[in-house]
Write a structure and sequence with these properties.
Largest sheet: 8 strands, mixed
Helix content: 40-55%
Distance between the termini: 103 Å
Structural class: mainly alpha
Oligomer: single chain
Number of strands: 15
Length: 1503
C-alpha cells in the first residue's frame, strides 16, 4: 500500500542528533551554568505557581528568541540529575506553545505570537530531547551496577527509579500540552501537524523500540505515549490527514514496538472505536451497535467524515503489520535494538532470548482477540462489548503517570475467557438458560468479504504449531488477492505488511524444526496455543454465520477444513486442548448450514466428541473453560450428526489429505455415535445438556425404527427415487386410514410415509461385534434401560429433566418396532411405577408442585405405555403393579405393603393422596385401563372416544317417533336421568327402538361419565340368545285330554298351621313382630291397630256375603277354555335395570357419612336449561385438544399477509407437503366428530347443507390451504390428546372462533386426491373424504344392540336431529387449548423476522428448514417459563424426513402438556366433566323421599 512512498524512520531515529544546540560544543560545566542562568530568568516570568505573577516576555526580536531556544534546547539534553533546569525548560516551552491555542499566555514572546507555527514546529522538535533515554545515566547514578546485572535482576535500582520517575513527570507535562494543541488549536498548519506527528513517532520509537526492561522509562511511559500518539493521530486524520509517508513511517515504527503489550492494547482500542463508527456507515443504524466505553468512543472526533473513517480504519488495522508475526520471536526480535542488546550483553546470546520476549504469547493472544472481536462486530454478534471490558486501556487523559504494569499476560487469558465463555456459547448456539436468542445480524456482510479482510491472518494463526504452517510469502501458500488483507500486484516477493527501511526484515518467518529447537522454551509454538485457539474460534464463527444459499470460495473452505481438522486432533490421553475446545464452542452450527463438503470433518468431529462427552471429568489443558458449556456445544454437534449415517448409508467420506488407510463410510460412524450418545447420557449432570441428549436418543430410536418399518413396506427409497412426490404419501394416507384407526387408540406415530437410503447393519465396538446388530430394537432396549435407571437414580429431583425423560419414554412407547420384546416393555412400566412410588414416598417437606407435576407426567407415561401395549395387562404381575400404583395415587397408600402382609380393606383406609392433581391423574389411568386399553375403536376411530348418538338421534329411532323433527330440548323429556355417585349421568329411554321386534324388556341407556359418553341397548332375556329361537309357542294349545280313570276327590279343610304350633318355641324371627300388648301404651299405634281390626272385620263380612250368594245361586255356569295371556309389551325398564344394578336399595337412596348426597339421584328434565347443560357436558372433550398452525415462508418474507397467502401457491417445496402428510390424516370439518381448531365446529356433525346454501361461484382454494379449518383439516389423536393441524390461507383462519360456514365437501372422494400430483402440486375442492365414514365401512354394530343407523333413512333422521350445540365458556378456553406454530423456512435467517406477534399467540414456534442434503434443521423459539421447552425435538437438531412428522407432533403435544402442568388452575378433561356432572346435580336434582322415589319409578314418562 505504501510501496512507492519513502519513509521517515531513519530521519526520526536521528532527530536527536540533528537538533543539537550549539552549547553542546562547550564544556559541560560551562554550558550548565549558561543554561541554568538563562532558564531560571525566563522561567521566573512565567507565573507557573501563581498565574498573576506572569509577566510579558522581554524577548522582542527573532534573534533573541532563537538564542534563548538554543539554550533551552540544550537544557532539555542535560543529565536527569539537573531536574530543576530540565523542569524549567519544559515549562518555558509548554507556555510558549500556548501561542497555538486560542488564548495564548502573556509570557509568550512577541515573535512567537506573530509566527506560532514556525516556532511551534521548532519547539516540538526540541522537546524530543526530553524523551530520549540518557546513555550511561544509570551507570553514573550507580557505577557498580552494570547493564548485564540489571537485565539479570530484571529491574533497575531504587535511585534510578526515582530519577526515571522525575523524568516521567516532566514528560507527562509535555504530553498534556501536546494534547491541548491537538484538541484546541485552530491555527496549526499542515507542516505543524506533520512536525507534531513526527515528534510523537520519534519519542515513541526512542522509548519503545529498545528491549523492554521492567520499570525503566519506556516501561513507565509506554501506555501513555502510545495513547497520546494514537489519539492525536486520529485527530490529525480529521484536521490534517497524514501523508502516505507518515503512514508508512507509522507502520514501520509500530513493528519495532511489537514486543510491548501496550502497543497491541492501544491498537485494539482504536480499531474497535473505528469499527464501531464504520459499521454504522456501512450497514446503517439497524445494524447491532458495538458498545464501547465512553472514554474510548471520545477518541473518534464527531466531525470525522465517513470516507475518513473508512480510510483510517483500514490503515490503523494494518499499522502493526501481520499480527500473526507476534507468534514468531525471530521476526519480532529482528530489529537493530535487539541485536545491539544481544551483542553488548553476556546474558543474552540471541535476540530471541531476551526476557522481554517472554510476554509474546500473551501479546499474540491479545492481538488475536482484537481481530476476533472485529470479526464478531462485522457479524453482528454481541461478544465485542463484553470483550472490550476485559481489555486493559490506558488512561490517556490522566494527569499523572500510570501505575506500573507487568509484562506478563497470563491473567488476561483466564479473565477474558471466563467472562466471555457464556456469551460466546450463546452467540454460537442460541441456547442459554434464559433462552436468549443471540444470532448474527441479518445485515452482516458475506463470509467471503470478511475472509478477504482477515482470512490471511486467521488462517495463518490457525496453523501455528502444525505441519501445515508454511512461509506466508510462498506463492503456494498464498490465498491470492482475495485471501490477503492487502493486495499488491508489484510485490510478489515481500509481505504487504512489512516495510523495507525500518530495520525490520521484509521477509516473514516460518519455523522449520531446526529453528524451533533454537527457540527459548517459553516461545515454542505450543506456547501460542491460546492465540491459535482464538483464531480458530473466529474462523468457526465466520463460517457458521453463512446465510442460506450463500457461496463461499472453495479456497477458503479447503483451508478452513484443514485448520479444523488439525485443531480437532486428540492425543492418546484424550486431553482437550484450547484449540479443540475453541472449535467445539464456536462451531455448533457447522453441520447444519449447508457448507459444501463439510461432512469430510465428520470422523474427526466424532473423535473429538469422544474425548468430551463420555468423560465425567474432562481433561483440559486450561481451566477457565466452562465444562458444561463445552459439553453443550459438543451435544449440538452430536445432534446434527445423528441423522447422517442412516441418511447417507454406505457413502464413503472423502479425505482432505491422503492418509493411505481405508476410507470411512457413514455407516461406520453409526455405532460410534450411538455409544457416544449412551455414554454421554450416563455421565451428564447438567439439566439442559441432559434434555438435549434425551432428544438425541429419541431421534436415534425413531429414525432407526422408521427406516426398518419403511424397508418392510417398500423397497425403493429416496436414494433411488428422488422425484418421489407427496401425492403418493396422501394415497398411502387414504388407503391406510381405516387400518390406522384400528390400531391401539388410533395412534399415528407408526404412520410413516417416507424412507431414505438403504440401511445396512453394523456392529457396536463396545460389545460383541459379530453377533449383535445395531438395530432399532437394540437401541430401544438400551434407551429404555438407561433412561428408566437414571430417572429413578439421578433425575427425580429435577423437574425439567424428569419431564424430558418421561416424554421420551412416552415416545418410545409409541414407536412400532418389529422385534419388540414384551419383557422390556414390562420392565419399562415397572420402572415407571417404581418412580411414582419413589416420588410419593418422599418426606412431606420434599413435596412440592414440581414433585407432583413429575408424578402426574409419570401417570401419563403409564397411560401411553398401556394403551400402545395392551398385552401388558394380561400379565398378572404387571397388572398388579399398575393397580397398586393407581391405588397409591388415589388413596395415598397401598393396601398391601408387602406380599406377606394382610391387605387393608377399602373401608378401613383413609383417603390421603399426595395431592389433588396426583389423585386425578391416577383416576384417569384407572379409567383408561378399564375403558380404553385393548378396546376396539368405535365407528369414528380415534376421532372421538364418545358415541355420536344423543337423545334426539335415539328418539328418532324409537317406535313412538311420529316423523317430525325433535329437538334435544324435547327429546330429553322422554328419558329418565339419574346421577350415580355424582360422577355418572345415566339417561334411560324405556321405549324399544324401531327395529326391535322381540317382546323383551328393552332399555336404551346413555351413560355420560368423566371419561366419555357411551350408548347401550340392553334386553332382559331368560335364555341365551342362541337358544331363544328354540322355544315353540302355539296360539291355541287346546284342552288336555281327560284321564281314563278320574280319581276320587276328597274334600278336606286346609290346615294353615300344624297342630303342635303352640308347642314350638319362638325364635328371634318370631319376635321381630311385636305383640299387641307391647304397643298398648302407644296411642298412635293403638289407632292404627283399631283401624286394622275394622278392615279385617269389613273384609270378613264381604267374604261371608259372597259365599252365601254363591250357595243360593242355582243358575247354569258355563265353563271357558283357558288361554295363555298375551305377552307383555310394556315394561318399566328403568326400574328393572336400576334394580338389577343394585341402586334401588334403601342405603343407595340415603346419604352416607362421607357424602351428604345419596349414591343415586334423579334429575328433573322439565327444568329450564337442562337440555343445554347436557349438551354442554357433551361439548367437554374427554381429551386435551390443541391446534398447530403451519406457515410457509419464502426467502425474505416478513409480511404476515404474504406468508399466509403462500399456502395457496402451487410451487411449494415437495418436502413441505410430505411434512404435512406425516403430521396427521385429512378429515372434513362437516363430518368430523373431533377437535377442529374451532369450538363452534368441534365434537359434532354439522348438518349437510343444501345446494342453495353454498356458493359454487366462490373462489377456488388450492394448495395446502385446503386444510384451512373451514372445509378440512389435518388431524391426529390418541387416547388422551387431539391435535388439529391447520394451514391458514387468511388471517381469519387463525383468529376466528365463531361458527364457520357449511362445507360443500363430497364425502366419497379419496384422500389421495387431497394433495395434487407432482405435475400440478395443487389442492382441489372436494378431495377430502369423510374419514369417519371410510373407516366405518364394512363394519357395523352388532344386531343385538338394536342401534342400526347405517341405512339411508336412519342416517338422514339422525343428522336432522342434530341441532345447535353450545361450546364452553369463553373464559375457560385459554386454560384448556394451546396453539403451536410450525413454520417452514426456505431461508433459515428469516426466523429472526418472522411476524409471530401478528399471527397469534403460540406456546412454541417450531421452525423447519430444509438442507441441501435432504435433511431438516429444527429451530425452536418462544417465551418459556419455569418449565423449559419440551422434547424430543431440541433447538438445532437435524432430523430425517421419515421421522420429522412424529417428532414434531410429539414436541407440540408435550409442550402443550407442560403448559398445562405449569398452570395453577388447570383441570384435566375428566375432572372438568366430573365437575359439570356435579353442577347438573346441584341445579336439577329432584328432592324426593324414598317412597316418593319408588313411586316415581312406576310413573310413565311423556314428552
Amino acid at each position: 500500500m505504501y510501496a512507492d512512498w519513502s519513509s521517515l524512520t531513519i530521519q526520526l531515529q536521528c532527530l536527536g542528533n540533528s537538533t543539537q544546540s550549539v552549547l553542546s560544543k562547550l564544556p559541560q560545566d560551562d554550558s550548565k551554568q549558561v543554561v541554568s542562568a538563562v532558564v531560571k530568568t525566563v522561567a521566573n516570568n512565567l507565573g507557573i505557581t501563581v498565574s498573576s505573577d506572569a509577566k510579558p516576555s522581554a524577548l522582542n526580536t527573532e534573534q533573541e528568541v532563537n538564542w534563548c531556544m538554543e539554550v533551552i534546547c540544550h537544557g532539555l539534553c542535560l543529565p536527569l540529575t539537573e531536574h530543576k533546569v530540565i523542569s524549567d525548560s519544559v515549562n518555558i516551552y509548554c507556555e510558549w506553545l500556548s501561542a497555538l491555542l486560542p488564548n495564548p499566555k502573556i509570557c509568550v514572546p512577541k515573535p512567537v505570537l506573530e509566527d506560532p507555527n514556525f516556532y511551534g514546529q521548532k519547539i516540538i522538535t526540541h522537546l524530543n530531547h526530553l524523551f530520549i533515554p540518557r546513555k550511561g545515566e544509570e551507570e553514573q547514578i550507580n557505577p557498580a551496577v552494570t547493564t548485564t546485572d540489571k537485565l539479570v535482576k530484571g529491574k533497575t535500582l531504587p535511585s534510578a527509579q526515582d530519577t526515571i520517575h522525575r523524568q516521567a513527570v516532566v514528560c507527562h507535562r509535555v504530553l498534556r500540552r501536546v494534547q491541548e494543541l491537538a484538541h484546541q488549536s485552530t491555527v496549526m498548519e499542515r507542516e505543524t501537524w506533520e512536525a507534531l506527528l513526527s515528534f510523537l513517532l520519534a519519542i515513541n520509537d526512542a522509548l519503545l523500540s529498545p528491549p523492554a526492561v521492567k520499570d525503566d522509562i519506556g516501561d513507565q511511559l509506554c501506555e501513555r505515549v502510545l495513547g497520546v500518539l494514537f489519539e492525536i493521530w486520529l485527530i490529525a486524520c480529521v484536521k490534517s490527514f497524514p501523508s502516505p509517508t507518515l503512514w508508512k513511517t507509522f507502520r514501520e515504527m509500530c513493528m519495532n514496538w511489537r514486543h510491548r503489550t501496550g502497543l497491541v492494547t492501544q491498537w485494539n482500542r482504536v480499531n474497535l472505536c473505528l469499527t464501531s463508527r464504520l459499521l454504522g456507515v456501512l450497514y446503517g443504524p439497524r445494524f447491532p451497535v458495538l458498545n464501547i466505553p465512553k472514554e474510548d468512543s471520545e477518541l473518534i472526533p464527531d466531525t470525522m467524515t465517513n470516507e475518513c473513517v473508512a480510510q483510517s480504519w483500514f490503515r490503523f488495522l494494518n499499522c502493526i503489520g501481520n499480527p500473526v508475526e507476534l507468534s514468531k520471536p525471530i521476526a519480532v526480535s529482528n530489529t537493530q535494538q535487539f541485536k545491539e542488546y544481544a551483542l553488548k550483553s553476556f546474558g543474552v546470546v540471541d535476540p530471541t532470548y531476551h526476557p522481554c520476549l517472554a510476554s509474546l504469547p500473551s501479546i499474540f493472544l491479545k492481538a488475536m482477540k482484537g481481530v476476533s472481536t472485529i470479526v464478531d462486530a462485522y457479524l453482528g454478534l454481541p461478544r465485542p462489548g463484553q470483550m472490550i471490558s476485559t481489555m486493559s486501556r490506558s488512561t490517556s487523559t490522566s494527569a499523572g503517570p500510570p501505575q506500573n504494569q507487568s509484562l506478563s499476560g497470563s491473567s488476561l487469558i483466564s479473565t477474558s475467557a471466563v467472562m466471555n465463555s457464556a456469551i460466546m456459547l450463546a452467540t454460537v448456539t442460541g441456547t442459554l438458560n434464559d433462552q436468549q436468542n443471540l444470532s448474527p445480524s441479518p445485515l452482516r456482510p458475506s463470509c467471503n468479504s470478511i475472509l478477504h479482510l482477515f482470512g490471511l491472518w486467521l488462517f495463518e494463526a490457525a496453523f501455528i504449531g502444525t505441519d501445515l504452517r508454511v512461509n506466508s510469502n510462498s506463492p503456494k501458500s498464498s490465498l491470492g488477492a482475495r485471501g490477503s488483507v492487502e493486495t499488491s500486484r508489484d510485490q510478489p516477493r515481500t509481505s504487504s505488511f512489512t516495510g523495507g527501511s525500518s530495520g525490520v526484515s521484509s521477509q516473514t518467518y516460518s519455523l522449520p524444526a531446526s529453528e524451533m529447537e533454537d527457540l527459548p522454551p517459553g516461545l515454542t509454538p505450543n506456547n501460542f496455543e491460546s492465540g491459535r485457539a482464538e483464531a480458530l474460534g473466529a474462523l468457526c464463527r465466520i463460517f457458521c454465520s453463512k446465510r442460506t444459499g450463500e457461496e463461499i470460495l472453495p479456497v477458503y473452505l479447503a483451508r478452513f477444513y484443514l485448520a479444523v481438522q488439525k485443531g480437532l486432533a486428540v492425543g492418546p490421553d484424550k486431553v482437550v486442548s484450547e484449540s479443540l475446545a475453541s472449535i467445539l464452542l464456536n462451531s455448533s452450527n457447522l453441520l447444519r448450514i449447508d457448507l459444501d463438503g463439510v461432512n469430510v470433518l465428520a470422523p474427526f468431529l466424532v473423535t473429538a466428541l469422544e474425548a468430551v462427552l463420555p468423560e465425567k471429568e474432562i481433561k483440559m489443558t486450561v481451566s477457565y473453560i466452562n465444562r458444561g458449556d463445552l459439553r453443550r456445544s459438543a451435544i449440538h454437534l452430536l445432534q446434527s450428526m445423528l441423522a447422517l449415517p442412516l441418511h447417507f448409508s454406505n457413502m464413503h467420506i472423502k479425505e482432505l489429505l491422503p492418509t493411505g488407510g481405508p476410507s470411512v463410510s457413514f455407516n461406520q460412524l453409526k455405532p460410534r455415535l450411538v455409544n457416544l450418545l449412551i455414554n454421554a447420557l450416563q455421565v451428564e449432570t447438567e439439566g439442559v445438556n441432559t434434555h438435549m441428549l434425551l432428544g438425541c436418543l429419541m431421534l436415534g430410536v425413531q429414525d432407526a425404527a422408521s427406516l426398518e418399518e419403511a424397508e418392510l413396506t417398500q423397497n425403493d427409497g429416496f436414494s433411488n427415487n428422488t422425484d418421489r412426490n407427496s401425492a403418493g404419501l396422501f394415497n398411502t394416507a387414504s388407503e391406510t386410514g381405516s387400518v390406522m384407526s384400528d390400531q391401539t387408540n388410533g395412534s399415528a406415530d407408526h404412520y410413516h410415509h417416507t424412507q431414505l437410503s438403504e440401511r445396512s447393519s453394523f456392529n457396536e465396538p463396545s460389545i460383541d461385534m459379530d453377533n449383535v446388530a445395531d438395530s432399532a430394537h437394540a437401541l430401544f432396549v438400551r434407551a429404555t434401560y438407561l433412561v428408566c435407571h437414571r430417572l429413578i437414580s439421578s433425575w427425580r429431583s429435577e423437574l425439567n429433566t424428569s419431564l424430558a425423560a418421561l416424554e421420551m419414554l412416552s415416545g418410545l412407547a409409541r414407536i412400532q418396532i418389529q422385534e419388540q420384546d414384551a419383557l422390556e416393555c414390562k420392565r419399562a412400566v415397572k420402572w415407571l411405577c417404581d418412580y411414582i412410588v419413589t416420588q410419593c414416598s418422599r418426606p412431606p417437606q420434599a413435596h412440592s408442585r414440581d414433585l407432583h407435576s413429575s408424578i402426574v407426567a409419570a401417570f401419563q407415561a403409564c397411560v401411553t405405555w398401556l394403551v400402545h401395549h395392551p398385552y401388558l395387562l394380561q400379565d398378572k404381575e404387571c397388572l398388579s403393579t399398575v393397580l397398586e400404583v393407581v391405588e397409591l395415587g388415589i388413596s395415598g397408600s397401598k393396601s398391601q405393603q408387602k406380599a406377606s402382609s394382610t391387605p387393608v380393606t377399602k373401608d378401613e383406609k383413609a383417603l390421603n393422596p399426595a395431592s389433588r392433581r396426583v389423585r386425578e391423574a391416577a383416576e384417569n389411568l384407572l379409567s383408561v385401563i378399564m375403558e380404553q386399553v385393548g378396546h376396539v375403536q368405535s365407528l369414528t376411530g380415534s376421532e372421538c372416544l364418545s358415541s355420536l348418538l344423543d337423545e334426539s338421534s335415539l328418539l328418532l329411532q324409537s317406535n313412538s317417533w311420529s316423523g317430525e323433527q325433535v329437538s334435544n330440548h324435547t327429546a330429553v323429556k322422554a328419558f329418565r336421568y339419574f346421577v350415580i355417585d355424582q360422577s355418572v349421568v345415566l339417561g334411560i329411554l324405556e321405549e324399544s327402538l324401531g327395529n326391535s321386534q322381540d317382546p323383551h324388556p328393552t332399555v336404551t341407556a346413555i351413560i355420560r361419565c368423566p371419561s366419555n359418553k357411551s350408548v347401550w341397548t340392553l334386553k332382559l332375556r331368560h335364555l341365551p340368545r342362541h337358544k331363544s329361537g328354540q322355544v315353540q309357542r302355539s296360539a291355541n294349545p287346546g284342552r288336555p285330554l281327560a284321564m281314563a280313570e278320574p280319581g276320587t276327590r276328597k274334600d278336606s279343610k286346609p290346615c294353615f298351621f300344624p297342630d303342635s304350633i303352640e308347642k314350638i318355641p319362638l325364635c328371634a324371627a318370631d319376635r321381630s313382630i311385636p305383640a299387641v300388648d307391647s304397643i298398648a301404651g302407644d296411642e298412635t299405634l293403638a289407632l292404627e291397630l283399631d283401624r286394622l281390626a275394622r278392615l279385617n272385620e269389613q273384609q270378613s263380612i264381604l267374604e261371608k256375603d259372597l259365599s252365601h250368594t254363591m250357595d243360593e245361586d242355582t243358575s247354569y255356569s258355563t265353563e271357558f277354555e283357558c288361554k295363555p295371556p298375551e305377552p307383555c309389551s310394556e315394561f318399566q325398564t328403568a326400574r328393572l335395570i336400576l334394580s338389577h344394578l343394585g341402586f334401588l336399595s334403601i342405603s343407595a337412596l340415603r346419604g352416607a357419612l362421607d357424602s351428604p348426597l345419596p349414591r343415586l339421584i334423579a334429575l328433573h328434565t322439565e327444568n329450564d336449561g337442562f337440555a343445554k347443560d347436557i349438551e354442554s357436558l357433551d361439548q367437554i372433550s374427554p381429551r386435551t385438544f390443541d391446534t398447530m398452525y403451519t406457515f410457509y415462508v419464502r426467502p425474505g418474507q416478513t409480511n404476515s399477509v404474504d406468508i399466509i397467502s403462500n399456502s395457496q401457491a402451487g410451487d411449494l417445496n415437495k418436502m413441505y407437503l410430505e411434512l404435512l402428510a406425516s403430521l396427521g390424516w385429512p378429515v372434513n370439518v362437516s363430518t368430523h366428530s373431533g377437535w377442529t381448531g374451532d369450538y363452534s365446529t368441534s365434537w359434532k356433525i354439522i348438518d349437510e347443507p343444501s345446494t342453495n346454501d353454498c356458493n359454487p361461484a366462490g373462489p377456488k382454494i388450492s394448495g395446502p390451504a385446503r386444510f384451512n379449518g373451514t372445509e378440512a383439516i389435518l388431524y391426529w389423536a390418541d387416547v388422551s390428546s387431539e391435535l388439529a393441524i391447520i394451514v391458514p390461507c387468511r388471517s381469519t383462519d387463525i383468529y376466528s372462533t365463531e361458527s364457520r360456514p357449511c362445507s360443500s365437501l363430497s364425502g366419497n372422494q379419496q384422500a389421495a386426491d387431497a394433495i395434487s400430483t407432482h405435475s400440478t402440486s395443487s389442492f382441489e375442492r372436494g378431495d377430502i373424504p369423510d374419514c369417519a365414514e371410510e373407516r366405518s365401512s364394512g363394519s357395523g354394530l352388532h344386531g343385538s344392540l338394536s342401534l342400526d343407523v347405517t341405512s339411508g333413512e336412519s342416517t338422514t333422521r339422525r343428522k336432522q336431529g342434530r341441532t345447535n350445540q353450545v361450546h364452553p365458556d369463553q373464559k375457560t378456553r385459554s386454560n384448556i387449548d394451546y396453539k403451536v406454530a410450525l413454520v417452514w423456512l426456505e431461508s433459515m435467517e428469516d426466523y429472526l423476522t418472522f411476524p409471530v406477534n401478528e399471527l397469534g399467540s403460540f406456546s412454541i414456534t417450531i421452525f423447519v428448514h430444509p438442507l441441501s442434503t435432504g435433511l431438516l434443521r429444527i429451530k425452536l423459539a418462544g417465551s418459556f417459563g419455569k418449565i423449559s421447552v419440551s422434547s424430543p425435538l431440541v433447538d438445532g437438531m437435524v432430523v430425517s424426513r421419515r421421522s420429522v412428522g412424529p417428532l414434531l407432533r410429539q414436541t407440540a403435544i408435550n409442550m402443550c402438556r407442560r403448559r398445562r402442568l405449569e398452570q395453577d388452575l388447570y383441570q384435566p378433561p375428566h375432572v372438568r366433566r366430573k365437575l359439570k356432572i356435579q353442577e347438573l346435580v346441584s341445579k336439577h336434582r329432584i328432592q324426593m323421599s324414598e317412597p316418593e322415589f319408588f313411586a316415581n319409578l312406576f310413573m310413565n314418562t311423556s314428552y
